[in-house]
Amino acid sequence: MIKQQDYEDLYREFFIHAADITEGPYPYQIRLAVEDPLPELLDVPTGLGKTAAVVLAWLWRRRYDKRFKDQTPRRLVYCLPMRALVEQTHRNIKTWLINLGQLSQVGDGKISVHFLMGGEQDMKSWAEYPEEDMILIGTQDMLLSRALMRGYGMSRYQWPIHFALLHNDAQWVFDEVQLMGAGLPTSAQLDAFRRTFNPALPSRSLWISATLNKGWLATVDMRGFVDKFSVLALNEAEKTKPSVSVRREAVKRLNTAETKLTVESAKQGAKTYIAGLAKEVLEKHQDGSQTLVVVNTVARAQVFYGALMKQGWDERNTLLVHARFRPKERQAINARLIEAPDSKGPGRIVVATQAVEAGVDISCRVLFTELAPWTSLVQRFGRCNRYGEWNKKGGADVFWVAIEEADETARPYDAEELANARTKLKQLKSASPADLPGTGDTAPLHPVLRRKDFLDLFNTDPDLSGYDVDVSPYIRDADDLDVLLFWRDLNDGSEDQPKPYRDEICRASIGQAIKLIERLRKSGRPSLIWDSLAGKWQRFEGKLRPGLTLMLDAAIGGYDSKLGFQPETETLVAIVPPLQTDKDSEVYDGDHRSMQKRAVPMAQHLCNAEDVVRALSVAIGLNGPATEALATAVRWHDAGKAHPVFQGTMHGCKPEETGGKPLLAKSTLNGRHIRPHFRHELASALVWLEQHGTADHADLIAYLIAAHHGKVRLSLRAMPEEQEPQPPLGPRFARGIWEGDRLPGFDIAARESVAPVTLRLDLMELGEGEMGPSWTARTQKLLQQYGPLYLAWLEALVRLADWRATRQEQENIP
Amino acid sequence: MTNEILLTGCTPTPLAYYLKALGILRLVAEQQADPDAAGRWEGEHFVLRTKLTREELERFFLEQYQPTPIVAPWNGGSGFFQKDNKEGIDPIRKSKSVRFSQYRKTIVSAAELVRRWKFKERPKDDEKNRFLIALRAQLANEVLPWFDAAIMLSSERTLFPPLLGTGGNDGRLDFTNNFMQRLNELFDVATGAPRRSTVGWLDHALYGKAGYGLISKAIGQFSPGSAGGPNASTGFQASALINPWDFVLMLEGALSFAAAVTRRLESGEMGALSFPFTVRASGVGSGNVSMGDEKQARAEMWMPLWDSFVSLGELKTLFAEGRTVIQRRPAKDGLEFSRAVAALGVDRGVSAFQRYAFLMRSGKAYFATPIGRIPVSRKRQPEIGLLDDLDRGGWLDRLRRFARRDETPGRIKQNVRRLEDAIFALTQGGTRNSLQQILIQLGRIERSCAVSKDAQEGVSPVPVLSESWAIDADDGSSEYRIACALAGLYAPGMPMRAHLSPVKPVFWEKAIDRWLWNTESRLVVWSSGDIVTNLIRTLETRLLEAERQGLDDKPLDGFFRADLDAVLHFLDRRTDDTRISDLVAGLACARLPRELSGQAERNTIPDAAPLVFALLKPLFVPNNTLRWLEVLPADVSLLLHRSVVRWLASGQVDRAIEEASRRLRMAGFHVSPSRQMKKFASGVAGPRLLAALTIPMETGATAYICRQLTEEAVTI
Predict the structure, then answer these.
(1) Which A positions 410-449 lie with beta carbon below 8 A of chain B?
(2) Is residue A440 very low, low, confident or very high in pLDDT (cuts 50, 70, 90)?
């Protein structure tokens, strides 16, 4: 019998090996890995290795400790509010896995690590291996949109797969939750839904923060669970341990800066204020160390940056960090930021906006910060003497800059928020973590995703206007108000300009962008917008609105590689050359694979896919009656390919000429179906229902069959451009399937016989018809019976089995 | 065992009775554990299919029904604020009855929220928006449908679906407060027992049985027939006779509709607010609403009617599928809406839509006025397909966006709005007349864009319309045929359309593919003046241009040729010239057919063409045609000398005839001069004659006239 102590020792060894450290892990890091259960909340101050604690604990529980293996989800989903954090976290995790010899490509049986953030190329290979252990690191936009069935940056037809994999068998980790904004209540609601909707395999959530108020998670559906949450925090002994206390009690003297932002000093671009502040910062800065100055607006940060130089500071020892840079420049800045300044030199001054709160792991000796909302201040304090490295060298200083109470000085924050923070600051002894009170603030106001909204999202068909339910209010609040700008050399006109690349896009607030656009209009130069209807760039004349992407002439300025977006700048903007991948990538198309290297007979493909799904079910431990239904669905999923229209395409002949030709599931030909919008999977589902409509789970099987390309799901509709059938066929039609279409019978090898069938479609209409209840009634009932999580899971498995069987068929060419 | 219960009290109109049907179905399905309950419209009544018997159904409403706890703590008059009427809310708040327990809880928690937000009166503006976000985050699941039916919430602002007025009230009538008052009238709220009149009222509500002593209360927008108001009596308060059940069940039914925030996938646009089967923000189809008024304009809802039994779950799904964006002015509101709704109707087996307009009344309240029923036919309406031509290259879309800019010239705005009306009318089943209207407006739009540099940058010329336009818009009138003939006036480099606006054709495989603006065009002569002047200018320009180009034939051929009858109507001033002018510009955008229906019958030879016309006509017929008719030898040309044109234009018909005769004789026609000439010519107005001669004419009639001139000597 292994004792708890032994587990702890084993884990300590494991941790040291993984993290490549000499001094053992913090006790809380060990507790997280070896104690039962894994908590929901991790309340640990910044700088104490939270990411390592969580990732390695999951890995240990999943791969090394048999006691926890089965209750530990296969997928670790690490959700971060900002891109900058994703890159850093990714680097660290990879290093640990390499140290442990566990890192591999997906499909190799070890642990693969995947990025999920905008602009990444591989955002789907992970989804093909539901049975493998893996780590997904992503931004909140990417992950939450997928969890809400409206994945950003992907084909709508693949939404259900990502949805399924993120709600089943997933350990979610929400890090830096104080920055999640609207995503936080959503994360709580989603967890509550996972608790009530019975996924096929359980999932869990873990929220990490030093400043989180537990009450913020007590959303309407989570309320009943939050009280029972287990919280892992530092215990008293830990708090006094030198390795912890050096950080927890890091010396951060709190001072009030002499300079103040007043209504008066804010005038003329805050010139007086900035000059005063720069002077004060230079006085307080200590050679060989880092000073961080955090101001609340980009404009002030830019002016301040210039003011430092004016007062004789060397630009080489200065960094400007804010969110109004193009990714290209931002990457360079981030790279410089993580390098520590030369301790024998003059040191470095980092000028930043709140973008740095969430930014990279840096520490400073002197911190200047403008008054900000309390949670932001706490984050900023965390960047000062972060590791306690100055404790024995005279400590560190925080200077907070007072802001006069007025709306115009408070921006972008509420004067009221600032007032609350001011009160708190005044009662504070020091900015040391040990002296910071918890946040007592009431939860910020965000729209909350309700159960009915979540159910509504399960339907992925757009509505009559061609619109989809908008999930963005539940994902994030801030960025949405930006416009996106990029600059090109337009001397030769705009005709041949490609669409923007990720690395050249700069975000700007509407208020700032208007200044630049106005200047452009006065000078008679265009700003251009992509007109997708006309397929060309058009002069933009309208009003700026969030999310708009505009192409600007590089000659007019507005962006400076050092300062970022600045409407007043008139110098030529340096153009970002496209990467090769930018040139290649076009919008993601729906169908996974189209043309095949070799033909595959239908029966063979159906058998292969069934075998795959059975193996997959075993691998992921799926059981219960649905397992058999799943196998049946896969065995039948392509039965509708016997449709003459489909066979005509396979053989490159007319539908009426297909008689006597072998039934193919795949062929080397790559033609279009003669009927626009033809969907074989609808035919498959109809064939199934005609022959086994009364069998157990008949509707579930029909749904899984129909949904196996993500195009025919809850609702059955004809497309506007479809051809209408002529009598005697019809009158009903949908997706290229016409009432009265006849399909030949065939054998699924020796497994089952499919009889010839004449298709009917009355189930697309409401109410009961000859075929029984409507498709809508059937699918609504399924949704009620199985819940969205379970249904999506089965749906995803059918599709994954189909993909995998297809790949095997194509790769195993003799 | 299921029963089919005919509810004669539930009818497609007024709206209150339609909603009542949905309310009954919903409550039976949700509260009677009969999820299989279903309903259908049979004629003008609703039939409920349920496991309940008629008696059980009545007993359910009288004894078990638990009212949905609808509250509106954001509204003044909702019962949550000091000055509000509390007759309805207080008894429920104090009730100990199980029927009202959920209601009681909801009131208490809403009141608690109001208290926490420290409201003394109803919240306004941003505070209201924030309060609504907080409220929606907390309301019980049962109350959410009410919230989503009354309020459309997005992070920027709050909108109100027209169905429930302005957030659950209508002018000064707060629906929730009234709902609670009506419940007090139906039940002894303290115990939950029905009152004495409740049974009779229920009979009336379900089966329309009359005479149970209705009470005098406001019902608001849902039943204009029974509502009071300025037109009905002395004032809004002197309201109407209603049955409390009607009011209660109507609101219960309204909860089947839910708003949603939607957006175009990955568009970067802000979220838009959508509501089932509702269209707003468009003056389209409403005749007298200008674009500037669109914010005030009515909204419309199309309520589906169906004739097979449909369950609540299916209906809710249908309503979700039928959501349309109503907040924004989408590019193709009314038009796209009716096309899309009709298609969904077909797919779902909906038999008809009952259309309601929500019209602003007395500045604040709305009335849901039934404005007709639209049957859903399984066949697509072929005329609607014609509109695809306008969508080519997103033309219509672009035009409509352009028209909605503030700085767009008023004339264009006005024309575009009329175009939208006409398009809408077409989708409503209008055909020929609407098509003509569309054509006319297209012509006007192109001409009004032609004088605005701005417009030419923003909008390209009207796309080429298919032949079906000209065929389907034909009303058989002379005006139409003349317009067609003029629109088809053709010679190389001189399409008729180029005289109307500065455009030039772009060819693709020998056919005109599209048109571009051509500001350097020398051909544009058409003005807003009368058609005769315009035609004369056109003719002169064509002749000049033909000369310049060195064409060897008269530039007066036509794709379509009018029959003699029509031309003579014109000559006799028996046509509506304005209409011709209007149609020409639109038809010039279309490919023209060689024939219109009924042409053959019309192409009979009339008894008499005025001699003057007959004598002059050959000069206006291309030589190729004359040769084909074998009235002109292959090596001879009959020229239209500009002097003939000049004399006719200046009214000197006799001189024109003199010259024409000379030309005709030279070409081998048997025309002899006569002293009578002046006499014949004196009664004819030269300019009009000239215009009539310019109209390409059907070859049979032309041949007849010409042969007269060749075979027998004509003495004038």
Answers:
(1) 445-448
(2) low
Contact B141 A219 (CB under 8 A): no
Scanning B495-554 for CB atoms below 8 A from A yields: none
b (16+ CB within 10 A) / e for A197-231: bebbbbbbbbbbbbbbbbebbbbbbbeebbeeeee
Closest Cα in chain B, distance from residue A718 (Å): 7
Pairs of CB atoms within 8 A across A/B: 171
Distance CA B566, CA A15 (A): 98
Who's near A524: CB < 8 A, 6+ residues apart?
A: none
Among A44-58, A515-529, B149-163, top mean pLDDT goes to: A44-58
The DSSP bridge pattern shows strands A170-174 and A204-208 to be parallel
Interatomic CA distance for residues A352 and A787, integer angstroms: 46
- Alpha helix positions (H), A60-172: 66-69, 83-100, 140-147, 159-167
Structural contact between residues B467 and B592, judged by C-beta atoms closer than 8 angstroms? yes
pLDDT at A779: 96
Q: Say what the pLDDT of residue A792 is.
A: 97
Cβ separation of B141 and A467 shorter than 8 Å? Answer: no
pLDDT in tens, B58-97: 999 999 999 999 999 999 899 999 889 999 999 999 999 9
Strands A527-531 and A536-539: antiparallel
Q: From chain A, pick out residues whose CB is under 8 angstroms from the CB of B398.
A: 533-534
User: Which chain B residues are Cβ-neighbours of A541 within 8 angstroms?
Assistant: 405
pLDDT band per the 50, 70, 90 thresholds, residue A586: very low
Which residues in chain B are closer than 8 Å to A548, comparing Cβ atoms? 268
Check residue A540 and give its pLDDT: 80
pLDDT score recorded for residue B229: 39
Buried b (16+ CB within 10 A) or exposed e, A664-696: bbbbeeeeebebebbbbbbbbbbbbbbbbeeee
> Strands (DSSP E) along A175-268, which ranges?
204-208, 231-233, 252-256
Interface residue B310 vs chain A (CB under 8 A) = yes
Residue B706 CA to residue B669 CA, distance in Å, equals: 8
A704's tokens: 């899984």
Check CB contact under 8 Å for B153 and A447: yes
Residue A546 confidence (pLDDT): 66
pLDDT of residue A119: 59
Stated pTM of the model:
0.77
User: pLDDT per residue over B10-58, tens digit each?
Assistant: 999 889 999 999 999 999 999 977 888 999 999 899 999 999 999 999 9
What pLDDT is recorded for position A535? 60
Give the dihedral sign, CA A606/A608/A611/A613.
negative
Q: Report the residue of B348, B381, B392, B400 to disrupt the A interface, i.e. the one with the largest count of A CBs within 10 Å.
A: B348
The verdict on a CB contact (< 8 Å) between A462 and B265 is yes
Residue A116: name the closest of A139, A83, A150 by CA. Answer: A139
Reported as a single tens digit per residue, the pLDDT across B350-362 is: 989 998 888 755 4
* Residues from chain B contacting residue A546 (CB–CB below 8 Å): 268, 270
- Find the radius of gyration of the CA atoms of chain A: 30
Q: What tens digit of pLDDT does each residue of B269-323 get?
A: 566 778 888 876 444 444 433 444 444 456 788 899 999 999 999 999 999 888 8
Residues of chain A contacting residue B268, judged by C-beta atoms under 8 Å apart: 484, 546-549
CA B308-B309-B310 angle, 5° bins: 110
SS3 assignment for A211-236: CCCHHHHCCCCCHHHHCCCCEEECCH
Residue among A185, A468, A784 minimizing CB distance to B263: A468
Chain-centroid distance of CA B315 in Å reads 27
Across the interface, of B141, B317, B380, the residue whose CB is closest to A451 is B141
Interface test with B, best of A467, A550, A713, A782 (most B CBs within 10 A): A467
